[in-house]
Structure to design on (781 residues):
């Protein structure tokens, strides 16, 4: 349902041996939309087996406005998005990307912001720091990497934010580790933001909670898992009537329910408004909506019948 | 209003009361001592805004604030605490005695005081009859008074 | 000639009306619609803004960047969809905006508040029939941080300013209880740039004032007492608000536009399917909803009128 933008790769820079930075411009020479600190885009990569969706934080540290930049870390043994970006994408290529979205916004009422990043987890903070610097708000960055050489954007950050950044390099002499006990130093009114490997997010979140931080002050970047695009036929059983219905590949559950006189309310038919929700008692759901939260999707108890589907058979509370 | 309860798992507690509100905090102080969690207990008296705001803003994350006292006292301290960086999630309040409620006139925006049982009142600024509602504005710290046509 | 064709119709297939999230994708992506009432309505707007600034305009200081984003979005819409009526010239950050209908030209430096006489939102709102509300997304909530509102359906911008979405909707019956308000808030928070939405709200109005503000209810509300079966067709108006929602990608706020359309019942019912459906809906409408919409005093009279008209077809 969502609109896409056509972008052209204008420039590729090797930030470190494993991180490449891509500068994207609008394919029609207009300006790409602005975005708020912490935003990301979904990129749609043409793959032999279908489109591969990958999400990347966006920033723009180039001197020109109206561009998107992303940084891609080549993951060990990657067969997916990062390998594609590193090996297949060339200057001049044209790709589709989504409009910017923001699941990781800055707190409005924070008195100060403290960012904790490890490795490629630095990327959302590039746009967040730029926004705060523009608004003259107070922030600091704690950034861990293996070494200076492997620390993406080291020069840019240390030059642009000399007073706000603290680096932690784990290799070599004088190794300095980034520890959750740092969190004990922050004054009241601080919001903390974590981005990096899962264990960093876990450790820092657990520590912050144990020190008495309200969840309100703790933010972590999450990316929705990539969605599968192959739709399958499936069956549902209606709990109250016992009726069994088949949902063919090219129909939605909502359509089939309506055809059988089961009046589920609906509005957008695009997985965006939440009106056509049905309760699920049994079975595995493939969610295709952009409405339910991640927790609601994982709970496996509800689905939006206009777009989401079952794996095999579902029992519906209708 | 939320129930006034002791919230466990904090690094430090600050208890602030006026002379009327102190008693209600004694149990919490006891609890903090049992849990061996550091705390400050202060009966505010004539402390200045500047002193309080500075004191609050020096606190570290993980500190939890309790305010107990009369309505005017609570309003003043809560405002200072919010300005210093405390959020609604880092404080609890207990109001002793009556809360004076305000009603905004929907025609002239004048503010009227009322008590809980009033269903109607006459705006003291423009003279129209207002129906008390539960529609509340935190910006104006007041409820909305609707006019009727009957 | 205003006919039923000029009125956006708010009902779906169902003859039962209840509150739900009735938003749908706005495929045209156009925030602004010009009708043949354009000049009258914007001159009424400007008059109200001059006479009652406190009632019709509010903004918090931190909304300035978002206000400029709204100017950008709306001017872009105007020159894209109505190129024969609006023009924009950009030269080194200087914008020259021409409204050929009002024969006005404004020149300002985009983003520089000092180059406009009034705030950006107030400025651009005076060129469109829509009321404009800015909801800022802050700390996981949506707050009404700025708005230009001249044609409210009996609510007060002054009172509602700086409220969050739930507080704003607290007077609506049944909204809190069944989690509907949480669901709608969740929907709003997920609105994405480039994918705007649209919904319609409807009501009845005794009289034909667009500026039915809460502040002046004791004047215009009187007409409710005068409705009879005989005069309902002329006196009572069917009112539709077309509401659109746009994510502003830079400030992460949401622009909520409200275009109020009005048509007398006698014109509305010229279209027989509308007469039939509206009669059915009004008859079955839950009391809590018609009380809230302010129809109670004259609902019987309108039903009698509609019934008589139905018999004639
Ligand atoms: C985000 C921007 C929105 C704003 C600023 C807004 C504002 C308002 C206001 C001021 C009222 C009148 C409340 C009163 O009586 O005091 C209202 C009514 C209402 N709103 Fe919203 N609203 C918004 C979005 C929505 C959405 C997205 C929905 C549903 C999908 C919705 C559903 C309703 C309904 C059902 C009513 C009652 C209307 C009636 O029965 O006449 N609103 N809204
Ligand atoms: S109808 Fe809108 S989510 Fe399904
Ligand atoms: Zn008054």
């Amino acid at each position: 349902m969502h609109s896409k933008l056509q972008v052209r790769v204008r420039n590729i820079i090797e930030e470190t041996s494993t991180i490449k930075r891509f500068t994207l411009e609008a394919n029609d020479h207009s300006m790409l939309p602005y975005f708020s600190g912490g935003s990301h885009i979904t990129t749609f990569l043409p793959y032999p087996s279908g489109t591969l969706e990958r999400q990347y934080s966006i920033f723009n540290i180039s001197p020109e406005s109206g561009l998107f930049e992303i940084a891609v870390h080549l993951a060990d043994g990657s067969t997916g998005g990062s390998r594609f970006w590193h090996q297949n994408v060339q200057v001049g290529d044209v790709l589709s990307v989504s409009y910017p979205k923001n699941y990781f916004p800055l707190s409005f009422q924070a008195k100060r912001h403290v960012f904790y990043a490890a490795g490629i987890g630095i990327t959302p903070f590039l746009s967040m720091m730029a926004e705060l610097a523009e608004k003259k708000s107070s922030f600091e960055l704690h950034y861990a990497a293996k070494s200076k050489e492997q620390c993406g954007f080291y020069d840019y950050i240390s030059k642009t934010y000399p007073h706000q950044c603290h680096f932690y390099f784990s290799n070599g002499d004088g190794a300095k580790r980034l520890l959750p006990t740092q969190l004990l130093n922050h004054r009241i009114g601080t919001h903390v933001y974590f981005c990096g490997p899962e264990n960093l997010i876990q450790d820092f979140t657990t520590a912050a909670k144990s020190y008495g931080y309200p969840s309100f002050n703790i933010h972590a970047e999450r990316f929705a898992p990539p969605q599968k695009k192959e739709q399958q036929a499936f069956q549902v059983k209606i709990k109250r009537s016992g009726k069994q219905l088949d949902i063919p590949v090219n129909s939605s559950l909502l359509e089939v329910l309506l055809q059988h006189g089961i009046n589920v309310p609906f509005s957008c038919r695009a997985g965006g408004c939440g009106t056509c929700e049905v309760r699920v008692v049994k079975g595995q759901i493939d969610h295709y909506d952009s409405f339910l939260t991640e927790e609601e999707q994982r709970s496996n108890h509800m689905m939006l019948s206009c777009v989401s589907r079952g794996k095999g058979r579902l029992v519906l509370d209708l | 209003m939320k129930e006034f309860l002791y919230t466990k798992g904090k690094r430090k507690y600050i208890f602030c009361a006026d002379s009327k509100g102190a008693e209600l905090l004694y149990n919490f102080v006891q609890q903090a001592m049992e849990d061996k969690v550091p705390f400050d207990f202060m009966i505010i008296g004539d402390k200045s805004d500047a002193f309080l705001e500075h004191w609050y803003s020096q606190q570290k994350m993980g500190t939890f604030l309790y305010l107990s006292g009369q309505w005017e006292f609570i309003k003043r301290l809560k405002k200072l605490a919010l300005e210093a960086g405390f959020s609604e999630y880092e404080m609890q309040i207990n109001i002793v005695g009556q809360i004076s409620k305000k009603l905004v006139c929907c025609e002239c925006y004048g503010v009227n005081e009322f008590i809980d049982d009033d269903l109607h009142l006459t705006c003291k600024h423009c003279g129209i009859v207002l129906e008390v509602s539960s529609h509340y504005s935190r910006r104006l710290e007041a409820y909305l008074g609707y006019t009727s046509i009957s | 000639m205003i006919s039923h064709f000029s009125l956006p119709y708010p009902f779906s297939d169902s003859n039962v009306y209840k509150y739900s999230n009735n938003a749908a994708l706005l495929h045209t992506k156009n925030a602004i619609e010009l009708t043949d009432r354009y000049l009258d309505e914007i001159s009424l707007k400007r008059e109200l803004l001059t006479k009652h600034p406190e009632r019709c305009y509010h903004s918090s200081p931190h909304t300035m960047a978002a206000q400029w984003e709204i100017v950008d979005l709306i001017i872009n819409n105007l020159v894209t969809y109505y190129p024969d009526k609006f023009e924009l010239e950009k030269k080194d950050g200087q914008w020259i905006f021409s409204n050929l209908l009002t024969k006005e030209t404004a020149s300002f430096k985009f983003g520089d508040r000092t180059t406009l006489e009034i705030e950006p939102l107030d400025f651009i709102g005076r060129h469109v029939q829509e009321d404009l509300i800015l909801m800022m997304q802050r700390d996981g909530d949506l707050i009404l941080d700025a708005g230009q509102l001249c044609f409210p359906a009996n609510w007060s911008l002054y009172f509602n300013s700086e409220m969050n979405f739930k507080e704003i909707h607290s007077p609506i019956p049944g909204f809190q209880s069944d989690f509907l308000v949480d669901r709608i808030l969740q929907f709003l928070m997920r609105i994405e740039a480039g994918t705007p939405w649209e919904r319609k709200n409807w009501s009845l109005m005794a009289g034909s004032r667009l500026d039915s503000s809460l502040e002046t209810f004791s004047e215009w509300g009187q007409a409710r007492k005068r409705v009879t079966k005989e005069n309902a067709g002329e006196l009572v108006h069917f009112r539709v608000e077309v509401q659109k929602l746009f994510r502003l990608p830079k400030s992460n706020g949401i622009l909520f536009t409200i275009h109020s359309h009005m048509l007398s019942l006698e014109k509305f019912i010229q279209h027989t399917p509308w007469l039939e459906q509206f009669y059915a809906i009004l008859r079955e409408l839950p009391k809590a909803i018609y009380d809230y919409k302010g129809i109670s005093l004259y609902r019987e009279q309108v039903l009698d009128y509609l019934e008589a008209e139905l018999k004639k077809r």
Chain C touches chain A at residues 20-25, 69, 136-139, 183-184, 186-187, 190, 192-195, 197, 249-252 (CB under 8 Å). The two ends of chain C are 23 Å apart (CA to CA). Residues B 105, 107-108, 110, 123, 125-126, 128 surround zinc ion (ligand 3) (CB under 6 Å).
